[in-house]
Amino acid sequence: MVPRFTGWYVTISWLTTWSLASCASAPTPSTVPASQGDRPPITAVDSTVHALTSPLDIYQAGSIRYDYRLTSTVQAIAGDSIPRTDSVRITAVLTATFNENPTQRSTDATLKADSIIVAPHPGSTVSSSLQTQFVPLRVDRSTGRITSPRAVLTECTQETQDIVFHGDEILPTVLREGSASRSWADTSTSEVCRGGLRMQLARIARYRVDPSTPTRPVQTTIIRVADVRVTGNGLQWQQPVQVSGEGAAVDTLFVGGIPPRLRQLSGQSQLELEFHSPMRTQRFLQRSVTVITARLP
Asked: Could you report the per-residue pLDDT of 7-39, keeping only the tens digit for each?
């Protein structure tokens, strides 16, 4: 049996975030424009209010909820006798809770993802619900980096149910004094299991404060450009499979409110993956659009 590789959608938030974005050949940033849209309201205020120490200190104690929406289209570009396109839509409610200890440099946070719905096609009546997920995290407030170790996959088979969210979807690496430095970079690695394939994602994200943003704004606009490299292997239908690919994403982040929080993220990503087995080589192009919006209290 010659397999058609399936079940490999990946979050580039980042993870996210790559957030559940795809894996695609790395285009130049100009080919993946950020979705600008209307600027979100910045009047939302968390129930726990702290003195504003920095317009980018988004990790202060309190909680905030988000509506998450990702739409992804996967197109076979080589190796399929019949060209085809698949799509998936993922929606969820994400809650970030921060437990600040003023004597510590780090903040403990928890991501709760519930109401997770995965629909195979836009407008399809066939969908599946996933159970609520909890992800404990530790964040360095000065650098914005997640310092807690990521969970290690003990096994990866076609039956493995890997978690969908990892926390960085709504916890970008925002440098607390970024409004002064105006730009910074972050590198990260992660591992996911999709369709029996264990994949390693190496990501470089570059952030810059929008030049039109004043030094101490009510709302700060941050542009994030990320490149990702994917490698991995595993078994599908009793055949060894190797996977490799590259991708890129551009996101626009809006930070504001008291205390400051990520209020909205919108972006596009593109990823190209190649799957190679003894009987077949296939290439796929995945394009994804992600919108994350904070809920008003």
From this structure: 444 444 332 222 223 333 333 333 444 444 444
